[in-house]
Design brief:
Blueprint: H1 6-9, H2 17-24, H3 33-64, H4 77-84, H5 88-100, E1 104-107, E2 111-114, H6 130-135, H7 150-156, E3 164-166, H8 178-189, H9 204-214, E4 223-226, H10 229-240, E5 246-251, H11 255-263, E6 267-274, E7 277-278, H12 280-290, E8 294-297, H13 311-323, E9 327-331, H14 349-352, E10 358-363, E11 375-378, H15 383-395, H16 400-410, H17 414-440, E12 455-458, H18 465-474, E13 477-481, E14 495-498, H19 505-519
Parallel strand pairs: 3-13, 5-6, 5-8, 8-9, 9-10
Antiparallel strand pairs: 1-2, 4-11, 6-7, 10-11, 12-14, 13-14
Helix pairs in contact: 2-3, 2-17, 3-5, 8-16, 10-11, 10-15, 12-13, 17-19, 18-19
Length: 531
């Protein structure tokens, strides 16, 4: 039987933690970190409590279904609310869960009924013939039909219950502007023509907003709205490089980019990165040796190293690419993830480009929600027509309701407040994780402490990233192995530790404690990395 104070606990979720700062108008710098943290904890446990309430009610109803005949009606929602002392929302979600399992059927205005048993699935046929069909390559076929998505799936996979997620590539729900997004979606739904077909290039107002964010001479006419950053990168590579062509990439780099390149039949060629970004002399040598016409880079808070391309190298990169007759694809994924102590950010490469060398990629997804898949491609010159054509063939356009909601979100007063809260929290989490590693696992070297992004790039003292990942998972911590971030042989073992996908800083210290126990670390010793 649910506890008698269930209703009294439910209001914890509204207006607590990050959302309270974002929605109330309170400047984050004026709110103590203790208050923010305690609010976030309250929000997290309220969400967890609501989820457990739904699960408990669904299990209770599931165990009682045999009391009703097939097609028989279950008690009304009001009766369930009174009997189990839960909210109407909890009843609705529990019934929806049973409906999804095929156990009940809900009929608007009539109620919920026990469902008829499902027809047994037919015996599976013989699909072994597909092994031949899928592996038989045609003569001269360049583009492979199999795609290795393992490097991407590592960061998308949900770990077992109880495992602390240090492998995620997205903000935890307590850091997402959920109430602001819900309000934006509601306002967007009331806009005239919201379900109509949008321009294939995207809504003019949203294109204009992206252009202003990118800066320089980039205008709304140079921008295409895309379904997130991954889609934008896919379109860019398909437009700029034919199958079989080499593509220069930073080493290490984002595994999703390597997967896109290989799925397109292109050959990624590594150009090493150091603490100041890609090394220009090696970039020039790579262009000369390969004849490549594309270089993909992340000049700001590079994933996974966190490096920022230095002022001295920015002009060199553009000059080298222009001399090679090549494009630079600038993946500016982390500009909205700058930490509170990042200081003034450098302009985009696109803003400094005068000759149409740069194709710029931007996305709202990382700083909002994995499901708000709205991004942008920006380019100048004839290449824009090719980018537009490929996007139209692939997806026609980004759904208008999503574009309208994104436009409402970035134009709301809550938006800059959300960015400030995220900047403060990411800095705090970075410092907590780095400090815990210095104390508990000094053998785990962190060469660079980033001032943006959501990860630490670390070198295990054991010299084996696969063994580190396996031991971490056994201890209840999911981390990302470093090998998928290299398209050639890595210079050494690395792991990526994300601090964005957990409810709070407490989970970070607990994760390091588990890692120390699993790996046999001891306090003291060398530092885990400095800025």
């Amino acid at each position: 039987m649910p506890p008698p104070n269930r209703r009294a606990r439910a209001p914890l979720r509204a207006g607590s933690g990050t959302e309270a700062c974002v929605e109330s108008g309170t400047e984050p710098c004026a709110v103590s970190r203790t208050a923010i943290a305690s609010g976030r904890v309250a929000l997290f446990f309220a969400v967890m409590y609501e989820r457990s309430s739904v699960a408990e009610l669904a299990e209770s109803l599931r165990s009682e279904l045999n009391r009703y005949p097939l097609g028989g009606k279950l008690p009304s929602s009001r009766a369930l609310v009174e009997r189990f002392r839960v909210s109407p929302v909890t009843v609705s979600r529990a019934l929806a869960q049973l409906a999804a399992e095929g156990l009940v059927v809900t009929r608007p205005g009539a109620g919920a009924f026990r469902a008829q048993p499902r027809t047994p699935a037919p015996a599976p046929g013989d699909t072994s013939w597909q092994a031949v069909a899928l592996s038989a390559e045609g003569t001269g076929e360049v583009v492979p039909r199999s795609v290795d998505a393992s490097g991407v799936l590592v960061t998308l996979a949900a770990p077992p219950a109880g495992v602390i997620e240090l492998h995620s590539g997205y903000l935890h729900s307590v850091l997402q502007p959920e109430r602001a997004m819900a309000a934006a979606l509601a306002r967007a739904g009331r806009r005239p023509g919201v379900w109509g077909r949008p321009p294939v290039e995207g809504l003019p107002e949203l294109r204009d907003w992206f252009a202003r964010e990118i800066g320089g001479a980039v205008g709304a006419a140079d921008v295409l709205v895309t379904a997130g950053g991954q889609s934008a990168l896919t379109t860019a590579l398909r437009a700029l490089a034919p199958p079989g062509a080499p593509i220069l990439v930073e080493s290490p780099t984002y595994p999703g980019l390597l997967a896109i390149a290989r799925a397109s039949g292109c050959r990624p060629v590594p150009v090493p990165v150091d603490a100041h970004g890609v090394r220009p002399e090696l970039l020039a040598e790579a262009f000369e040796a390969t004849g490549a016409r594309v270089f993909v880079c992340q000049p700001l808070f590079q994933n996974p190293t966190g490096a920022v391309l230095s002022d001295e190298r920015r002009g060199e990169v553009l000059r080298i690419a222009r001399a090679a007759g090549a494009f630079v694809v600038e993946d500016d994924y982390a500009r909205a993830l700058a930490h509170e102590d990042a200081g003034p950010l450098p302009a985009t490469l696109a803003a400094e480009d005068t000759d149409g060398v740069v194709v710029h990629v931007r996305s709202l997804t990382k700083v909002t929600s994995p499901s708000l898949r709205v991004g942008a491609l920006a380019a100048r010159g004839p290449v824009l027509d090719r980018l537009r054509a490929i996007q139209v063939v692939d997806s026609f356009f980004v759904p208008r309701p999503l574009q309208e909601a994104a436009l409402e979100l970035v134009g709301a007063p809550a938006w800059p407040r959300h960015l400030k809260v995220v900047a403060a929290e990411l800095r705090h989490r970075r410092d907590v994780l780095a400090g815990a590693l210095r104390r508990e696992l000094p053998s785990l070297e962190v060469p660079q402490l980033p001032r943006g992004g959501y990860q630490l790039w670390a070198r295990p003292g054991s010299g084996d990233d696969a063994a580190f990942v396996a031991a971490a998972l056994r201890a209840g911590v999911a981390v990302a192995p470093g090998r998928p971030y290299f398209c050639a042989e890595p210079p050494g073992p690395f792991v990526r530790l994300s601090f964005a996908g957990v409810p709070g800083a407490g989970e970070l210290t607990e994760a390091v404690r588990r890692l120390r126990s699993a790996l046999g670390g001891a306090p003291g010793g060398g530092a885990a990395g400095e800025a």
